[in-house]
Amino acid sequence: MFGTADTSLGKVLTDSHGFTLYRFDPDTPTSSACTGECAALWPPVTGMPSAASGTTLPGKLSTISRPDGSTQAVYDGHPAYRYTQDRAPGQTNGEGVLGTWHVIKPDAGAAAGPSTTSAPSAAATTGSGSTSLY
């Protein structure tokens, strides 16, 4: 079951025990790149995901098949993991590890961009010197 918790990094997705969940940049919405020793340090959240009672999650819950045949929970296109160095609920020790591990924010999909299909104005896409802001 997925829930949420307020942390020093803002609201994050948690497992049923309140531990922070993470995403791995090399993953895709349909496959996990974290296996072997990686998965020992970053255990995948397995099984069918669901929202905890009383929790509303704006993102899509789904699963993928891992290379070992197990089913991994996915939130909004991000396979979910725990970090073994988080020793207590609400800790976020895995944020930024190797520059590729990040907490999963419940509103990650909503933060990805505007929901309209119109193109943003030039002022919204460039800063001083016409450098792209994203």
Q: Can you offer a commentary on this structure?
A:
The protein has 134 residues and is mainly β. The protein has one domain (3-110). Helices cover 7% and strands 21% of the residues. The chain has helices at 37-41, 122-125, and strands spanning 3-7, 10-14, 22-24, 61-65, 71-75, 78-79, 101-103. The chain has a three-stranded antiparallel β-sheet with strand order 4-5-6, with no helix packed on it. The longest helix has 5 residues, at 37-41. The chain is globular and about 30 Å long. Residues 110-134 have low confidence and may be disordered.
Specify the number of helices: 2
Quickly give the structural class.
mainly beta
| Termini gap | 33 Å
Helix and strand element order: EEEHEEEEH
How much of the polypeptide forms β-strand, as a percent range? 15-25%
Number of domains: 1
State the shape.
Answer: globular
Average residue pLDDT = 85
Strand order of the largest sheet: 4-5-6
Task: Catalogue the unreliable spans.
Answer: 110-134
Main attributes of the structure:
2 helices; disordered C terminus; mainly beta
Structural topology:
Layout: E1 3-7, E2 10-14, E3 22-24, H1 37-41, E4 61-65, E5 71-75, E6 78-79, E7 101-103, H2 122-125
Antiparallel strand pairs: 1-2, 3-7, 4-5, 5-6
Keywords: Lipoprotein
Region (Disordered): 51-70, 109-134
Biased composition (Polar residues): 52-70
Short description:
This protein has 134 residues and is mainly β. Helices cover 7% and strands 21% of the residues.
